[in-house]
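User: Can you recover a sequence for this backbone? Please restate the input before giving your answer.

Assistant: Of course. Working from this structure:
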């Protein structure tokens, strides 16, 4: 069935016009360009999502759709809530990219590698929120990157490809988490957090192993 995009395009034009009027009368906090670009990126996201819906084997169209949707959300936040957009806009975009890679894995389990960039994107999103909100943490945020990647590899140990678990992922997982903890807790007194964290992490691993074998 041939798709008619004229209805969608017309609705987006109407919405864009309404937003421009609201902005002209100072009902919106952002710039008029935010309304225009939000509509354009949103239209692109819907276009690629429609292609993905018709042929889900082409997972990269879903990834592109989510990337464009993340950019559109950034402009919408800048338009309605500029402070929120400044603080969380980057996290929304990075999270959307991460979800796109998870879609790639869910559509084709053989694409197990997609879990790695997904984990990296989610980790960067968390770091972005922590840095932008100025949250006071008992450790350096630089260590979060290595911890996040290490946890991503730990998740890989629970996945199966062609009936075999990716058990090899435990080898990069443990050193990355330990190195992340060392970077994050650089102060001597921070070792009080490191050892309990390692014990908890090891306990979680064995717990997942026990649940998997039931």
């Amino acid at each position: 069935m041939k798709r008619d995009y004229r209805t969608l395009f017309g609705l987006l034009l109407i919405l864009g016009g309404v937003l421009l009027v609201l902005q002209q009368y100072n009902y919106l906090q952002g710039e008029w360009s935010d309304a225009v670009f939000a509509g354009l990126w949103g239209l692109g996201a819907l276009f690629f999502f429609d292609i993905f819906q018709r042929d889900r084997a082409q997972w990269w169209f879903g990834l592109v759709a989510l990337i464009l949707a993340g950019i559109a959300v950034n402009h919408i936040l800048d338009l309605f809530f500029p402070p929120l957009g400044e603080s969380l806009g980057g996290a929304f975009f990075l999270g959307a990219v991460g979800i796109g890679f998870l879609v790639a894995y869910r559509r084709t389990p053989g694409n197990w590698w997609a879990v790695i960039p997904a984990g990296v994107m989610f980790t960067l999103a968390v770091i972005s929120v922590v840095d932008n909100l100025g949250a006071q943490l008992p450790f350096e945020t630089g260590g979060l990157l290595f911890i996040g990647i290490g946890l991503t590899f730990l998740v890989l140990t629970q996945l199966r490809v062609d009936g075999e678990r990716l058990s090899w992922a435990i080898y990069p997982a443990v050193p990355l988490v330990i190195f992340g903890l060392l970077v994050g807790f650089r102060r001597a007194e921070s070792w009080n957090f490191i050892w309990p964290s390692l014990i908890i992490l090891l306990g979680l691993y064995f717990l997942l192993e026990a649940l998997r074998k039931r």
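That completes the design. The first helix runs from residue 6 to 24.
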